[in-house]
Specification:
Length: 116
C-alpha cells in the first residue's frame, strides 16, 4: 500500500522503473533461452527444416504423409475423420488419442475396428 506521503507522480515513476527492471530481467532470461536453444541445435546438428522452418519444398515441410498416403483413402482422410465409433465419436488420427478411443482400446478392441 502507498503511504500518504507518496504522490501519484511518485508512484507512476516507481511503476515505470519496475516496468524497465522487468523488461531487463525478461531480456536476460530470453537471452539465456536463446543460448540454450543454440547449444541444443549445435549439439544435435539440427537444421531449419528439422525445426519446421524449412519453407516450401523442404523434406519435412511437406512431410512424408503427402507421398505415402496419396494413393490410399486420401479422399476420406482429407475430410477429417479416420476413426469413428458407433456413437459417432471421431478422431482424425493426429494428436493424442481421445478418451473414447483409449478406453475402447484398453477394453480389447483394435484401432482397425474404428477405421473409416
Amino acid at each position: 500500500m502507498a503511504t500518504k506521503s507518496q504522490s501519484y507522480l511518485e508512484l507512476k515513476k516507481q511503476i515505470e522503473a519496475l516496468h524497465a527492471q522487468a523488461e531487463q530481467v525478461r531480456q536476460a532470461e530470453v537471452d539465456g533461452v536463446i543460448q540454450r536453444i543454440k547449444d541444443a541445435i549445435r549439439e544435435y546438428g539440427l537444421t531449419a527444416q528439422d525445426l519446421g522452418f524449412g519453407g516450401r519444398g523442404g523434406a519435412r515441410a511437406a512431410g512424408p504423409a503427402v507421398g505415402k498416403k496419396a494413393g490410399r483413402k486420401s479422399a476420406k482422410r482429407a475430410g477429417g475423420a479416420m476413426y469413428r465409433d458407433e456413437n459417432g465419436n471421431t478422431w482424425g488420427g493426429r494428436g493424442p488419442r481421445p478418451h473414447w478411443l483409449r478406453s475402447a482400446l484398453q477394453s480389447g478392441k483394435s484401432l482397425d475396428d474404428f477405421r473409416v
